[in-house]
Fold:
Amino acid sequence: MPDFKFENEYEFDVVGIDEAGRGPWAGPVVAGAVVIKNKQLAEDLVKNLDDSKKITASKREKLYERLFEEERAGRLYIGIGEALAQEIDELNILQATFLAMTRAVEKLPFCPKMALIDGNRIPKNFPCPSKCIIKGDALSLSISAASIVAKVYRDRLMKELAVKYPGYGFEKNAGYGTAAHIEGLKKQGVTPEHRRSYKPIKNFLQKNQK
Structure:
């Protein structure tokens, strides 16, 4: 379970950062940035926060709402950033992820002195010093909170896109390459939300241009 071990290496507040949506064929990549003030977090959040992938969708939604309650109460700060499908195609997914992370940090009311980032790559020209933590979303409460924020925010976005572009199953698959998504591509083609640089979409476009 995540705790404050990594945060406690610093005498000041740090930001935890994680992303959601690197693998899907459609939609943006989203980053969450969370600062837990004075390393003090409500007991229910301490007990229940974890890597967002290990938590059910309904529990993630409840944790997301709780995190924003705590933000409104002034006990933590939350920033959310995204990079659109077009930016992913222009930059590549790694650089677009870094861009989303930068935008998330820029949404905070101040620039943190240190960022704890889930993963093994430090973004270049990042707004603040940073440290990578592999599997950080299961080790650090700040990163775990950021993983919940990014995942739920992105899932909600994909539900909105499902209304705009019905027939791809975005409300259930969040843009991943499921059977329903493939069927939608065959029947309706590629939308502006699809990542054309991704191999399955690129192959689909090439096949249908012949």
